[in-house]
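Page 42, continued from yesterday. The earlier attempt failed because a stray header line got pasted into the input along with the sequence. Redoing it now with the clean sequence only.
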Amino acid sequence: MTSTPATAPNPTRPTVRTGVVALAVVLDVVAVLAFAAGGRATHSADSPLTAVLSIAWPFLVGLAAGWVLLRAWRRPFAAWPTGLVLWVTTWVVGMALRWATGEGLATAFLVVSAAFLLATLVGWRLVALLVVTLRGRR
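This time it went through. Structure tokens are written below.
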């Protein structure tokens, strides 16, 4: 008599390695920090670290919320839906928190932040897809 263990893996649901998820998180955080660093370089006279963190924190909260709501660890490298949903949650929550804390929401900032975060949060995923696709053709 044989039995299947209760913890048998589900073959229809592949697992994503922890290192892959960690890499995706790091790339997303770097994208947000790069956005904040660019803003600091353009506008802030504060200390560099303080300025970057004061710009980045609302967007990092939005990014974390997106990761949890979407359960992005399931498909961390997917441009759709992961990249696009993370872009929207990062931007919307970031802007909402900036507004709630009395930070500025100038039109140019709204546009530049949306464009930069779209290009980076979705962009690195598209580059990864291209690399994997090209490797598969060899």
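Notes: The chain has a mean pLDDT of 89.
Reminder to self: strip header lines before submitting.
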